[in-house]
Amino acid sequence: MKKNWWKILTVLLLVFTVAVGMLSDVPRLAILNETIRNLYFHVPMWFGMILILLVSVVYSIKYLRKPSIKNDIIAHEAAKVGILFGVLGIVTGMEWAKFTWGEYWSNDPKQNGAAIGLLIYFAYLVLRSSFAEQQQRARISAVYNIFAFAALIPLLFILPRLTDSLHPGNGGNPGFNAYDLDSSLRLVFYPAVLGWTLLGIWIVNVKSRFEILRQRIYENV
Prior knowledge:
Helices cover about 70% and strands about 0% of the residues. The chain has about 220 residues and is mostly helical.
């Protein structure tokens, strides 16, 4: 029971996010209106994606320093879950853009940067599948994974700030500030960030343990 406290916390946080987030009052801001509730899903998913991909990079570095199947599997599974969160983040962002910008895709620098970043990580999955030998696949994938994360950060957080952008917090367009992100939004937003991130870690944990077990069974056959 003590080992599973964080899993129980994850469920409680996500239930809280959905229930309270959908039922509580939100500030009536121009254009955003009810769509501001997407703040509990779109933004936390991106936070979760970055943290989970960071975990993937850490285990790729650990593999390069001390090669082991476990490090490779965790790096791979974390990358896949990070990509899943990225896809969910970009889909929820497109839905938000439809209501606030008038169309799902407006070639905004933030949108384009996110799409390019995901394509770079899709290439990571393709790269892994192109090698049959385990050690070669793990080593090359680990190196690529590090460079993929290094490319993702400027695509998401630096380049959009250097040009005009509709996205809050980029191109001179202010993000949610103390006035916009009032106490009612914070009450749900911060638990949502923690909840979605823990869910991603939970998925990585389950998938990694399964793959490690499967690998051991394969080696003993």
